[in-house]
Amino acid sequence: MSADPKVFLMGEEITKGLLEKYGPERVLDTPITEAGFTGIGVGAAYYGLKPVVEFMTFNFSMQAIDHIINSAAKSNYMSAGQINVPIVFRGPNGAAAGVGAQHSQCYASWYGSVPGLKVLSPYSSEDARGLLKAAIRDPDPVVFLENELLYGESFPVSDEVLDSSFCLPIGKAKIERAGKDVTITAFSKMVGHALKAAELLEKDGIDAEVINLRSIRPLDRSTINASVRKTNRLVTVEEGFPQHGVGAEICSSSASVVEESFGYLDAPVERVAGADVPMPYAANLERMAVPQIEDIVRAAKRACYRSVALAAAA
Amino acid sequence: MSADPKVFLMGEEITKGLLEKYGPERVLDTPITEAGFTGIGVGAAYYGLKPVVEFMTFNFSMQAIDHIINSAAKSNYMSAGQINVPIVFRGPNGAAAGVGAQHSQCYASWYGSVPGLKVLSPYSSEDARGLLKAAIRDPDPVVFLENELLYGESFPVSDEVLDSSFCLPIGKAKIERAGKDVTITAFSKMVGHALKAAELLEKDGIDAEVINLRSIRPLDRSTINASVRKTNRLVTVEEGFPQHGVGAEICSSSASVVEESFGYLDAPVERVAGADVPMPYAANLERMAVPQIEDIVRAAKRACYRSVALAAAA
Amino acid sequence: DTTPMTIETSVPFTSHQCDTPSRSVETSPNELLTFFRDMALMRRMEIAADSLYKAKLIRGFCHLYDGQEAVAVGMEAAITKKDCIITAYRDHCTFLGRGGTLLEVFSELMGRKDGCSRGKGGSMHFYKKDSNFYGGHGIVGAQVPLGCGLAFAQKYSKDETVTFALYGDGAANQGQLFEALNISALWDLPAILVCENNHYGMGTAEWRAAKSPAYYKRGDYVPGLKVDGMDALAVKQACKFAKEHALKNGPIILEMDTYRYHGHSMSDPGSTYRTRDEISGVRQERDPIERIRKLILAHDLATEKELKDIEKEVRKEVDDAIAQAKESPMPDSSELFTNVFVKGYGAESFGADRKEVRATLP
Amino acid sequence: DTTPMTIETSVPFTSHQCDTPSRSVETSPNELLTFFRDMALMRRMEIAADSLYKAKLIRGFCHLYDGQEAVAVGMEAAITKKDCIITAYRDHCTFLGRGGTLLEVFSELMGRKDGCSRGKGGSMHFYKKDSNFYGGHGIVGAQVPLGCGLAFAQKYSKDETVTFALYGDGAANQGQLFEALNISALWDLPAILVCENNHYGMGTAEWRAAKSPAYYKRGDYVPGLKVDGMDALAVKQACKFAKEHALKNGPIILEMDTYRYHGHSMSDPGSTYRTRDEISGVRQERDPIERIRKLILAHDLATEKELKDIEKEVRKEVDDAIAQAKESPMPDSSELFTNVFVKGYGAESFGADRKEVRATLP
Ligand SMILES: Cc1ncc(C[n+]2csc(CCOP(=O)(O)OP(=O)(O)O)c2C)c(N)n1
Ligand SMILES: Cc1ncc(C[n+]2csc(CCOP(=O)(O)OP(=O)(O)O)c2C)c(N)n1
Ligand SMILES: [Mg+2]
Ligand SMILES: [Mg+2]
């Protein structure tokens, strides 16, 4: 943001710190009118500025979704390259704690389905820093799905990451943990769960490879594929609703597991996802509605022991 | 509609015929304000009326999508059953001819991902009649995805269908054509394509089973599953964007092909879908952007001959 | 004691495109004492919720209504339970006003079985359909078209009742509000849009969010009335006026000039964007409960001691309800899959690990 | 001949919350002749598009602008190509006004390579960024916030230019318009909202869609001006006034009272919801081209024959462009995958049969 004067930030209730640092011309507090200010952001991007549009949560992006899809994602194509749209839509996505059904939805699969959009989802501080910078520099519209629950967590950061030139590539997943027995894909908060599951699995002699997707669109099909060809087993994890989810895509993508790696699978893929219900408030129900570490462990074990189980059942 | 005085219709540019038949109290022409009138429709459903909210096309439902998701789909759950929402959202969905990127999107996978919604997609006149009636009678919110290009087509209709008591079950697919060699799933216009593909395949000695999904949510996993267990091969067809699409779900659903029917697949699943680009206007590009009959034929043949091809490639 | 008495509102009404109701409000000793008791109960309930939140017994969001009680209470005094109410997430007191119980409130806040939504809705999603309270909505502004839809249904059903749709000053800029207003005006819907102007939307002062913060005028071609929202009698007068207007002429906007003492939600201390002086000034000069207390004392309808006793009673009621709510169990885990649909046709639904947890929807 | 001359508009301007510009408009023989030629060209182009559509050379939607030409032409006369314009789907003539060519228009309409969007956009999606024309938008109302965003960028860049965002009477009820207007007013954006009131949104008359069809007043706290949109000189005067206003004071609304002769799009005969008399009445009394023709003849700036010759020339230009456009090839099939992204990072994209057709995005 300090590097490029064309970058400006707009949204509701923007933190004072940024306002003080960059001034009211570049940090704009908006009324609670997502359709209006998102449209304004997209228009400013048409002109050549680089807006960062903040949603208090991505649930409210539904008010403005037409601008994200029809005004931003499709313009470069419809204009045959005349009107590109260098904009970032960012905000917390998915479940926070105890906020109920209207404030807990994950939008990764929706936005990830739309050609013309790039969809990123950071997990660690390294991701947040490197991917946000990449998003702001990108000439295309980027949906940047953060997680409120991760804001509070701290991650070890290397010197390289702290360097002002640090940036991450868009469209590349990161192998957070190498392993040989089973591939676990995840993004955002679920990467942390997957890593913890991997630790538990290790105790049972299962060596899990954990892939942090980072980019939902473009999806890094080749990294996933290479991993599955090695491990022959796949568990996908996400917080969002299961039907038509990111896991569904990974399981069936042509460049991915089922189609191209068909010959390689030793067990059915396992999908772990948010429960197929609106998010309940009560703590016990909420816990059941989002994937827990033990769900991932169980699914991974099933994938690894499946041949045995099948034989036993037969 | 004539049966239940609580049913009323609202939307933009509603056809004169209905207005004349039911009068201006039950057929309401609205201004071009989708968020406003959809919210009004949902509110009326809270009270116990049965609104049928018409979108000129589902592309414009994005203006009102927050009400469909947050106000309609989630209310019964959030209120623990106090506020049910008997409403139908209907309109043409997906690609029409030559209408460009902003007017051609398919919303089946988005709405189909949301718990609390029922999502239906008719193909024939029988479907349209039977499913619409079921939707209107249903106590829950139903998204009813029609297809403009099918309005023009005519279908043979049986006496049973013409009977005023005719109604179809929600959540059940229809086997439009029985076959033993390969399962082809499709919905809406693509059912017609799949049936034509099946005819062509027959000439090559391939006996395809064509499943008209009818209901995207709930998805009739057991019908699909039973078919795949019989044919051991699967081609999914849809007009929408591929990533996180209906095809992705069918391929990886636990109750479905990959997971439960894992042992039964003789070839990788084939996904035929809209091209992963915004809809272009030019006729030649548009044709490439939506699935054609020959795409389905090719994919089905690949599924049937795959073992051979694999062997040859090895 | 229901002897009629007349009291003058301290601030006149200001109107836009319509007549102005009289400043003389009819009331009775009984009504004033009820106002006092109801508002004291609401106040106490909200303060208790604050403590429960701090004790981590309430999670997530929790938007408190203390300061704004006169709106809920005055509105109820003007209408019947056949009229509909719909509001945003700041819904505890509105629910109470509609006849909801403290046990339902506290149980819902703590996510228990006895909650008004059996623990599934949470703080923002209270409902009481049997007395026409339709929530409890978390998306800013969404409740306004929904409320106009309720009004549509009332008119469609020829019920001769009206809907009050409450929203904040922040919500007042939402486009869907203008869309719904236009439709309501075209169709003469008995919709009353009540803008509870507490002067802040989260940390944003009204003038920073609205070029024209004269919310009663923002309907343009729709009439509006500005009301002292800290005066339960003024609120009652305005709501009566609005109900009559709406049944005859369609929509009307009421701007209630009010104030929230607490921060926006529990994470907001409420003191970074406004001065402590401002808050204590309102407490001293405009507090809705104190106003009624003064009226009661001035008219000798009760003694100071009697009013203190009412406050004590109220306190106990709240404490008892909390104790009872704490005993209420968590919802049964099978509730995860109930109420997804009214009619599930036996469709399958899945838990996080779909092979471990799945259900058939009835 | 650029000798200044002054002409009175036949209808006065009506204003809301602002001054009223003078009815005496400065012009010149040259300008009037240019108006005549430009409008005649637009008219001819639209009529030719109608024929091409009927010959099935144009597909899908095709929204024609004939009748409304004075708005495009008068607006251009008041501003420069550094000012931005954005409009809805009825965009052919606006594009021409910004300097687009007939070949680009007809090629785009027929989905050919020489189209302004290389055939990928279609009728509703014309753009000309090099003269600040930002489309061509298919979602009713969306272009208004987008236009305010252009105005934001102009102000942010200190360019001292303005944006004209055009929308219809039907679009004027859209909530996002009110949201964008509030923000524009708060931030003093140089945004001019031009409501092209042709009195129908598809088959819906303005009064059936709007409780208050006085669109120039619908900004409430934002100034507005009602303009005879069939008079290019009045449009020019209003746009000059609005530009000055917007640079100094922020947003303003211009309501252009205009008329579309054709139906809404090609499937609408345009005669079911309005009488033939109404249409022919406007043609006879308010036609924007005839008005200029009369002015030119009354002031002896050209003979009737000379004007007829211009019309003949224009006709030939259109015919030639069509002939050329018909020769333009379809876009190359590789264009299916171009322009999805500016930067594709080598990501894969798929055709309908993903194993048969796939591409690497550059
Ligand atoms: C569409 C949407 N945008 C943003 C939010 C986040 N949010 C919740 S409450 C609130 C402030 C609303 O203020 P106001 O309307 O004045 O009501 P009050 O809280 O003062 O009662 C905001 C921005 C939301 N819930 N919905
Ligand atoms: C959000 C949305 N809803 C509906 C439509 C369908 N539609 C296209 S044009 C139109 C009428 C618009 O009328 P108006 O704004 O008066 O513009 P005009 O066509 O008269 O120029 C409608 C309803 C749309 N494109 N977008
Ligand atoms: Mg407020
Ligand atoms: Mg119009």
UniProtKB/TrEMBL annotation, chains A, B:
Provide the protein name: Pyruvate dehydrogenase E1 component subunit beta
Could you tell me which Pfam families the record lists for this protein?
Transket_pyr, Transketolase_C
Say what the protein does.
Answer: The pyruvate dehydrogenase complex catalyzes the overall conversion of pyruvate to acetyl-CoA and CO2.
**Native source organism of the sequence:** Corchorus capsularis (Jute)
Report any one BP term from Gene Ontology: pyruvate decarboxylation to acetyl-CoA
Q: Name the Enzyme Commission number(s) assigned to this protein.
A: 1.2.4.1
User: What are the record keywords, sorted?
Assistant: Oxidoreductase, Pyruvate, Thiamine pyrophosphate
Needed co-factor(s): thiamine diphosphate
Catalyzed reactions per annotation: N(6)-[(R)-lipoyl]-L-lysyl-[protein] + pyruvate + H(+) = N(6)-[(R)-S(8)-acetyldihydrolipoyl]-L-lysyl-[protein] + CO2
Q: Read off the InterPro entries from this record.
A: PDHB_mito-type, THDP-binding, Transketo_C/PFOR_II, Transketolase-like_Pyr-bd, Transketolase_C
Q: Where is the Transketolase-like pyrimidine-binding domain?
A: 1-153
Automatic annotation (TrEMBL), chains C, D:
Q: Which residues form the Dehydrogenase E1 component domain?
A: 37-332
Q: Where is this region: Disordered?
A: 265-284
| Assigned keywords, A-Z | Oxidoreductase, Pyruvate, Thiamine pyrophosphate
- Its top-level enzyme class, in one word, is oxidoreductase
Against Pfam families, the record matches this protein to: E1_dh
What Enzyme Commission number(s) does the record list for this chain?
1.2.4.1
| Biological process per Gene Ontology, one example term | pyruvate decarboxylation to acetyl-CoA
Please name the InterPro entries in this protein's record: DH_E1 (IPR001017), PDH_E1_Alpha_Subunit (IPR050642), Pyrv_DH_E1_asu_subgrp-y (IPR017597), THDP-binding (IPR029061)
Tell me the NCBIfam families matching this sequence: PDH_E1_alph_y
Q: What's the protein here called? A: Pyruvate dehydrogenase E1 component subunit alpha
